[in-house]
Structure formats: C-alpha cells, structure tokens
C-alpha cells in the first residue's frame, strides 16, 4: 500500500459490524454508504478483541460498531470496544424474511450488522454494566423459588401415596407449619416407614434452605435496584423483582429509551393499529419483552387490589362497559408511561426513617395509628420499616404525627 493509499484509508469513515458467538466473533467493515470493505474472524478473548479493534481501525475512522448480542456472546467485545472509545450500537438479528432471501453465514451476519447501523435501523446503545449484577441476582432468586415450588410439589405427591396414618397426620397441616413439622421428623422412631419419613424430612429441609436463600437474594436485589433507581422502587406496587425486570428491559440506560411510546412498545403494552378500509381499530400487541409485560401486569394487579385511585378507575371503566381484560390493558399502558418517566428522570424519594421515632416520642401505639387511618397495624409497621412504599400515605401519616 502506498503512502497516498494509506492516507486515504485513514481519512475515510467506516462502520463495523460484529456477529458474536461463544468461541469466535466475525468482524466486517463497510463504508459510510454501506459498501463492503473487508471481514475477518477473531477468537473471543482479550487478544482477539484487541486484534479485532486494530482490524477495524486499519480501514479508517470508525463512526460506530454494530454488535449482535451486546449482553450475551458479544459482551466481551462490547466492553473492549468501549474501553477503546468506540461507539457501540446494539443490533438485533436480521429478520427471517431477509435471512430467507440472502441466506445466513458469519460474514453475511456481520455485514448485515454494519449495514443496520449505516441505515439507521439500529440506534440503541448497549445496556449499562450495572444490569449484569441485577440480572445475576434475579436469575438466582427466581431459580431458588422455582426449585422451592418443585420441592413443595414433591412433598405433596409423596403424601398423596403415603400410608393412611402419615397422610392424615400431615395433609391436615398446610404452608410453613407442614414444612416445619416435616423438617423435625425422626425417622428412627417409626422403622416401618423410615425411608418415607427420611425423604419427607430431607425435602422439608430443602424447602427451608431454598426459602432462606431466596429471602437473602431478594434482599440484596432490593438494595441494588433501590440504589440504581430509588424512584422506580418507591412506585406503588413495584417490588424488588418487578423493579429489577423493568431495569433489565430498559438496560438502566436512559439513552436507550427514545420516547414513552417506544418504551410501551418494548414492553408489549402499546396497541397495534389493525385498520383496513372502513375498519378503524387497534389490537393487543403480542410482541416486545414478555417479561416486562408480565411485570406491568403484576403492578396492575397490585394496584387494582390496594390502590384507591386505581379501584375508582376500575369502577368507572366497568360502568362504561369495559371488561376486566380491557381495563388491565389500559392500566398497563398507563403504568408503562409512569415507569418511563421514572426510568428517564431522576426522582428524589422522601425518607421514612423519621416516622417510627416520631410515633414513639408521642407514645402512640401502632394500633392507635392504624385505627386513625382505617388500616391494619401491619401496614403502618411496614411503612415505618421501609418494607412497603406509599409516599402519599407516608406524607399524611407524618402530618398527623406532627399535629398529634
């Protein structure tokens, strides 16, 4: 290559595309108009990432790099590219129609990733690194509760086929009481049924261990999501797991969320036009992140059960002739709008640590405070300890304590 050609290469603007796999990444380079320049394959290790970045830089000034799987197989390259001050864009896999038309291979996918950036089809920034820890804790917590449920089902099935004396004794118990009783069994005291009792005791102890594990993981998850977005965690009906899922969907990166409508579509909560001719209607979106959609659904159910404003809204919509399913769709859309604001705008969450000392200073019991507001004493206790967030109620409670 002559000096003039090298200078031309350095001056041209190029875009990279990366097709990521477990053991290799395939890197392609295109011009700023989408023309193919070169492609090569590199291993998924530090040396391979450095060589891939050098390969990209050798072809000109890099405007951006489109990467498939920035949160999975491409996470290592994404981290290395960001450290090299390269702009990384998250690219979705080509749709099935395009793959049927042009085929599939690593070079084809890498060039497609680069062209997606050039055309403007791919614009999202990769998810923030803080999401990695949240996803890990959520995965472990959900795994623990899934295993706990399976173990409880195994106990039930063993009791169904157990001898009459054992079945009658332990099926009369339910919930934690049954688990606690089974965990204290002494199989040696009943040699005839020792194998069955040993199995029941082992399963009951497994349930207890999994319950403790889930509680610990959920506590750590709650602390992490509260630090990352206290406003979202403080929203009515948003628990640790729900907040974690919404943060994972959004990537904890406000730059990824362009508009409130796009976030609703991402969560599958935006109505999709289904009009034709004289027909003008919308249908329910079945796309988007279904886990995020399920999170919005759980928030809607909590508010329908406990939130006064939501119950009033449900009553009005019911009188208007809407079904429960239609009302939940409306609620999910409204909740998506609220969550979008909380994800993109920092919110100051009021402290609640002053509530309990203020009540105790005036010698007011939990029962007296609960009677004043028409709620159970446990509600007041949970709000004072931060186990339940209801900022409007907390403000009213604080004003009453001040005036009492």
Set out the fold topology.
Blueprint: H1 3-11, E1 13-20, E2 24-31, E3 36-43, H2 46-57, E4 61-68, H3 75-83, E5 88-91, H4 96-102, H5 106-119, H6 130-160, H7 164-171, H8 175-183, H9 194-228, H10 230-234, H11 240-250, H12 260-266, E6 272-273, E7 282-283, H13 290-306, H14 308-319, H15 324-344, H16 355-361, H17 366-373, H18 377-384, H19 391-403
Parallel strand pairs: 1-4, 4-5
Antiparallel strand pairs: 1-2, 2-3, 6-7
Pfam family, one: DEDD_Tnp_IS110
InterPro entries: Cro/C1-type_HTH, Transp_IS110-like_N, Transpos_IS110, Transposase_20
Protein name: IS110 family transposase
Task: Explain this structure.
This protein is an alpha/beta fold and 404 residues long. The protein folds into 4 domains: 110 residues, Nucleotidyltransferase, domain 5 (2-Layer Sandwich); 99 residues; 111 residues, no CATH class; 49 residues, 434 Repressor (Amino-terminal Domain). 60% of the residues lie in helices and 10% in strands. It contains 19 helices and 7 strands. The strands form 2 sheets. It has a 5-stranded mixed sheet with strand order 3-2-1-4-5. The longest helix is centred in the middle third of the chain and has 35 residues. It is globular. The protein starts with a helix and ends with a helix.
């Amino acid at each position: 290559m002559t000096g003039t050609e090298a200078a031309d290469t350095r001056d041209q603007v190029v875009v990279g595309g990366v097709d990521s796999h477990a053991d290799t990444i395939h890197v392609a380079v295109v011009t700023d108009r989408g023309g193919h320049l070169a492609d090569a394959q590199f291993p998924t290790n530090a040396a391979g990432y450095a060589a891939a970045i050098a390969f990209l830089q050798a072809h000109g000034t890099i405007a951006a790099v489109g990467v498939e799987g920035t949160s999975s197989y491409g996470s290592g390259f994404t981290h290395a590219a960001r450290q090299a001050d390269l702009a990384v864009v998250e690219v979705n896999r080509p749709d099935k129609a395009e793959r049927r038309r042009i085929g599939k291979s690593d070079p084809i996918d890498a060039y497609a990733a680069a062209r997606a950036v050039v055309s403007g089809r791919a614009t999202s920034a990769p998810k923030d690194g803080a999401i990695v820890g949240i996803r890990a804790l959520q995965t472990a917590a959900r795994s623990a509760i899934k295993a706990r449920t399976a173990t409880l089902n195994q106990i039930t099935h063993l009791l169904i086929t157990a001898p009459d004396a054992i079945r009658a004794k332990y099926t009369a118990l339910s919930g934690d009481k049954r688990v606690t009783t089974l965990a204290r069994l002494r199989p040696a005291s009943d040699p005839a049924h020792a194998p069955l009792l040993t199995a029941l005791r082992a399963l009951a102890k497994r349930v207890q261990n999994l319950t403790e594990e889930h509680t610990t993981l959920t506590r750590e998850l709650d602390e992490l999501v509260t630090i990352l977005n206290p406003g979202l965690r403080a929203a009515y009906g948003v628990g640790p797991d729900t907040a974690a899922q919404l943060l994972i969907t959004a990537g904890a990166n406000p730059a990824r969320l362009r508009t409130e409508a796009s976030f609703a579509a991402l969560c599958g909560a935006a109505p999709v036009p289904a009009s034709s001719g004289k027909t003008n209607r919308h249908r329910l979106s079945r796309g988007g992140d279904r886990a995020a959609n399920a999170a919005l659904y759980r928030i809607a159910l909590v508010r329908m059960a406990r939130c006064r404003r939501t119950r009033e809204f449900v009553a009005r919509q019911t009188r208007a002739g809407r079904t429960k399913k239609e009302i939940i769709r409306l609620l999910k859309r409204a909740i998506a709008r609220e969550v979008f604001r909380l994800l993109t705008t920092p919110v100051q969450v009021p402290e609640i640590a002053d509530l309990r000392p203020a009540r105790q200073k005036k010698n007011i019991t939990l029962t007296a405070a609960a009677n004043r507001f028409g709620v159970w004493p446990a509600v007041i206790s949970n709000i004072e300890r931060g186990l339940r967030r209801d900022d409007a109620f907390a403000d009213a409670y604080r004003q009453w304590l001040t005036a009492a």
